[in-house]
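This follows on from our talk about sequence and fold. Can you supply me with one protein entry, sequence and fold together? Could you add the entry underneath, on a fresh line?
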Amino acid sequence: MWFGTESGVSRFDGTNFKNFTASDGLPDNEILFCDSKGRVWMAPFRKSICYYYKGKIYNHGK
């Protein structure tokens, strides 16, 4: 299972976590970003950016 965070990505193999950052080859450490309003911003692979806020996903591409 993979997890995106504000400081890279982590992979959980069922027992251990392995963390990856820009020093491991990521273009940037911020995979997810939480802003001052508490919104969690994401950049899905094929679509525009979106964010999660108060239980709902907001998609600017629609």
User: Anything to note?
Assistant: The chain has a mean pLDDT of 86. The radius of gyration is 13 Å. The chain has no helices and seven strands. Residues 2-59 form one domain.
